[in-house]
Structures are given as C-alpha cells and as structure tokens.
C-alpha cells in the first residue's frame, strides 16, 4: 500500500501512564514475605526481588550461573566486587561475582545513646539535607529537632520496588501481637507524616516517610499497646513501640510473638505516544494487493506494451467485486471497498519504523471514515 | 551548584567497549529428569504446532522459570532420509522446512539463489555437509549479545543401551574457536563443534573401551545468533550410517553397536540396517517433539560463557590549578566570608567538588556524575575526574 498521510499537529501526543504496583511485606521470626509469596524454588529467597532469577532451583554444591569480567583499562567492575579487591587485582585478571542479586527492605536502629558524633549515626547524618528539604511538608522533618540525637528506626525500601516514588497515602504499617492488631500507622495526610491510628496514641505522629528516597524514619518510643516481646534481641521483654517496628531479625532472641506488616504502593511512570491515524471518506479505497483485482483479469496486469517510443499498461483492469448480495443467486452492485489490516508508521525519510496490526481487518467503503488510535510505550 | 563551564576538548573524550561475561552451566538433570518422567516434564513446553519445544529451568507455569533454549530438528531435502519411500513418516515437510529456514538464516544462499546446506568444516565451496541435525536455539536471556568463543561444551550420552545412556559420555566443544572461527555466515561468526573427550564405553558388545577415533566435526555454533547445530551423525556409527552423507556416523562400529534412541516400536518397511530405533529411524518416523525428547534423554551437561558488550564514553574532566576553587553554593559563604577558610584571610580559597555535570551544546544539563566523597580543590592542586557513561 503506497498511501502515505502525514500526521497533523493534533494527531500525535505524548502523555504519561502511571502505575502503582502494590507491595506488602510481612516480617516475622527472621523472615520476610513479599506479597504473600512463600516458596518459589531453591535459592529464591523469600521477601526479596530477584534481579535475574537465575539459579532458581540449584541447591548448594550445584554448578551455578555467575558473572565475571576481565579487568581492563575500562575499569569495569561488578558492583558486588569490593573496590579494594578490584584495585588490588592485576589487569587481565578475572573478577568474579555471584548470583542471585536480590533487594529487600532493611532496618537500622540509631540509638540516642550512641552520641551525636558516633560513627553508627553517620548514615543518618548523611540524610540531613534530605530531611530538611521536606520541611515545607511538615515541621516534623526538621532534622535538628527530631532526628539528630534521637532514637530513629530507619526502614529502607529499595527503589526497584517503588520506582520513582512511594505513592503518598499508600503507606500502612501494622504490628500484630499473638495474632491481634495492636498498632497501626498510616500517612493519612499524604504529607509524609506517619500517624498512629490505633490505641491511646491515636492521632500522634510516630515518624515520617521520604517518599522519593524510599525511607521511613520512625521515632516514637511511646507504648503502642500493653504487649511485650524480645524486640531488642536479648531475653529481656520490652513493650511494643514504633522504634521496634521491623525488628524481626533481632538476634537469637527474635520476637516470635510479633508480626510486622508494611504495605505501600510504588509509582512507575511510563511515557506513551498516542497517534491518531485517520482514514477519511473517499481515500484508502484502493489496494495494490494482487488479490484486489478480479482473478479473471489477473493476467492483464502484465499486459504491458512497449516499443521504442512508448510504454503503456492496461488502465482498465477490473476490480474484484467483494460486495455480498443479501439475495440468493444474485451479484451485488459494485462498490469500492477495501479491508484495512495494518497501519504502518514511517519516519521523515519514509522508512517503515513500526507496524500496528488489527485483530481483524476493518472493511472500509467509500463513505466510511475511520480513526485508528495507536499507542506506543516508550 | 557551581556555574563554571569548561568545554571538553577532543582529547578529553574517548569511546571504549568492555565485555561482561556470565558462566552458564546447565546440568543435564534440568533438561530431563528433574521435573517429571520423560515426555511429561513440567519444564518442557510443547506447542500445538509441534515445530519445536521450549526448555525451561523450572516448571514453566511458575513465574520463577527462565527460558533456557528451544529444541528442534530437521533434515535437508537432499538427505536420504527425505528421499526414502518408507511408510510412516511424520512431519516430513515440517522437518525439511525447519532445516531450510535455519540454513537460509545461518548459512544463506548460493550464487544461484539456492539455500546452502550446513557445512561441517565451514568451507562452503565443498566438503562434508550436515544434512540432518538437531538445533538448539539458546535463549537471549542466557546467550546475551553472544556466546563467548571457545567456551562451549555439551556432553552427550552415547551408550547404545537406552537405559544407561550416560555410561559412555562424549564431550563436544568449540576448542580453539577464539582464533579459528568462521565469518562467512550472514548471521555472524560461527565455530566448528568437534568431538573432544569420551568417557566410559558401551556396556554391550566389545569389552574394550571404545574410542571415538578422531576429532570429528559434528556441528556448528553460531555465536551471535545463539544457535547450535548438531549433526545426527553423533549417534550413528561409520558402517551403519548412510554413506551417501558425507560425515555419516562418527562412532567406532566395533565398539558402538547401533544406538537405541527411543525404546519404541520400529517403522515398517524402513530399510536402514541396525536396531529398531536408530537415529535415522527416529528422524524419519518420529514427530519433532518425539525426536527432541529422545535427544534430551541423551543430553548431559551444557556449559558456555555469554558476553554482554558495554559501550562506554569516558569524559576526562580536568580541573586545573586555577579552576574550580570557588563555589556558588549558598553554604560556601557565611557572614560574607568563605566558610572553609576558617577566618584566615591569607589562606587559599578552597572548594569541595561533589558533582560533575555534563552539558549539551546549548548548556542543557544532560547527565550528572556524583563522587562517593567530596574532593578538596585548592589552587595548589589539579584534578582529573574520570566520568564514564555506559549505554
């Protein structure tokens, strides 16, 4: 088909599709579960997002897929290789990594007893600018006042899960004790404040969320409920509070009576190009497909006459009449009609760069007018 | 943020290419045996069209499953298998079509426009042709940009007795392909697969351990396409093979009686000598998926290294002694004094470089490189920050 039509200024537009995949982490007894997925093969660790999901069912001792690179002038290094061992290796040597590469949430507790200059708090201090940046949302982001020397329970969420940002209003933190919901906090104001919505502390801010960076900073040491467990990793039982949220890994004395749940939605942005391809009335009623002409005249396609002074083709080749008569044993009157089966997209140099196919060919008569809406995810 | 721009000169920008590899071992039990009895494996996907089967590393209905490779077979219309008048052929047209399709993509057409046949030694002008073969199409997930030359190995069970297939195991490799690979294919570079090491020997027949007499050319591996072509002659011996096919069987007939491939009934009227289920009978009378099942039963370990090409541009951003010693960052000044000079007016200006921004010709910010820790810059030192952009 040689009919080319240029898109007009209103025929192409780019917009953005936003998706919000939902995640639920359940943490108990040293193990995380992601979206209620449990066993998915040997070597698939629960509660993680696996980058490649290689070696899914290879037990210890079996040969495994692993990456490697030869150290060269490009200084390409596997991220899992420590810088020190990379720089210490000779050029040409093989740097070997290992799979799986997984990502999961992590918890780190910064205790107020550490002291401001303690090396344990450096990671938190590095986030000072980020916290302060969000003070326009709420004063509880003020680093100096609320985080600098306080006990902070920092929950880190990898960006492979939430994409560009955590969706405001989607955070839901729950603490269950012996199967009973004893504490719940949500960002109901959508400004990053995590607000307790259960118990005597209902309505108080227990921490903040950094939506774009994927951090939750919980600072409330108030009692969530009159229940206790071994949240500190020792045999001593302490009362449940938000600074112990996610402490399911706490050493040999794990809090086995408590289940922590964290729900959130991510935000993934996908640019989409939408193109409107118009087939207006009176056009696209002809086809260069060989089946378009009558089979009885197919031989005349080649009835080319040529001489030293002329070149001519038969200009009266009958078109096959595919109009169906509603009556038996009769032939319908001829109408020009085509069946559109695909739309090709060409660039400025008329190179075919994309093809959109219809599930079923669309019949087009002379008086018909169609618009095909083509969407292309970028 | 600093607002000082410095133009990168031609000597400051270089393009490089690096190669990242993965070692891919595929144990034979994944291909057959782990996920159910033969022909019922949950990690093998057969299609209604019956032209090939897909092999996964886990039951394919699981989201954790990875596609490893597709398996199919075919033979040339010049093969005696296709010329035979034996009753009971299955999917003959499909098998020939598959061979032709693979051949025209991988070895192309000759000067007359005819599809070339796979050549055992890569010299298309003559020599032995591979006219009946198995095709292993390695998935892009594992093959990546290309299979690393000289790293491919496949082990096949060659014990004639079907139930003890791996009592004799032959390894086939593309040894020395790093330097001897061929380039006369429209699908990229390819190497010759040769018999390498035989382990064990037949438990029937002659008691002496049988040896494959020489390093035979038994297939081709197309590195960029990720396709392995294995000649059916691997499963055939010299005498019983069809001698009209150059490179007919490779096995020592005194030690390897004809191989039992499927344990099923014979095809009536087939004139090929040997046991009931020889490889030629299998190719002729079995469905494609049946022949693939038989192959998987004799397919041991497969291993290779893949390659991913990383193209990079390296920008050498040079900060000379008298450059980038000040900052327009609001925190740089306090009470109209440079904060980091500690009230010493005679001290050198000092800045800390944290970020390198790459700008386009119209001064639009295109990329940002961050340092893991700030670098101190004074008039008495010079820095070159190496910024690598991978794509």
Q: How would you describe this protein?
A:
By secondary structure, chain A is mainly β. Chain A is built from five helices and 23 strands. Chain A has helices at 83-88, 122-125, 128-133, 143-146, 159-162; strands at 12-19, 22-28, 31-34, 49-50, 66-70, 94-96, 102-103, 106-110, 152-156, 172-177, 180-186, 193-196, 205-210, 215-218, 228-229, 238-239, 258-265, 268-279, 305-306, 311-312, 337-346, 352-365, 370-377. In chain A, the strands form seven sheets. In chain A, strands 3-2-17-10-11-12-13-14-9-8 form a ten-stranded antiparallel β-sheet, with no helix packed on it. Chain A has a three-stranded antiparallel β-sheet with strand order 1-18-23, with no helix packed on it. In chain A, a hairpin with an 8-residue loop joins strand 15 (228-229) and strand 16. The mean pLDDT of chain A is 90. Chain B is mostly beta strands. Helices cover 12% and strands 35% of the residues of chain B. Chain B contains seven helices and 20 strands. Chain B has helices at 28-31, 80-83, 92-106, 140-143, 177-180, 279-285, 288-297; strands at residues 13-26, 44-46, 53-56, 67-75, 118-119, 129-130, 132-138, 146-147, 153-157, 169-173, 182-185, 188-199, 217-222, 227-231, 299-319, 333-334, 337-338, 351-359, 365-377, 383-390. In chain B, strands 1, 2, 3, 4, 7, 8, 9, 10, 11, 12, 13, 14, 15 and 20 form a 14-stranded antiparallel β-sheet that branches. In chain B, strands 5-6 form a two-stranded antiparallel sheet. A two-stranded antiparallel sheet of chain B has the order 16-17. Chain B starts with 12 loop residues before the first strand and ends with a strand. Mean pLDDT of chain B is 85; it is low at 204-210, 240-247 and 265-274. The A-B interface holds A 40-41, 44, 53-54, 56-58, 62-70, 72-76, 78 and B 16-25, 27, 30, 34, 57-58, 62-66, 301, 303, 305, 310, 312, 314, 388.
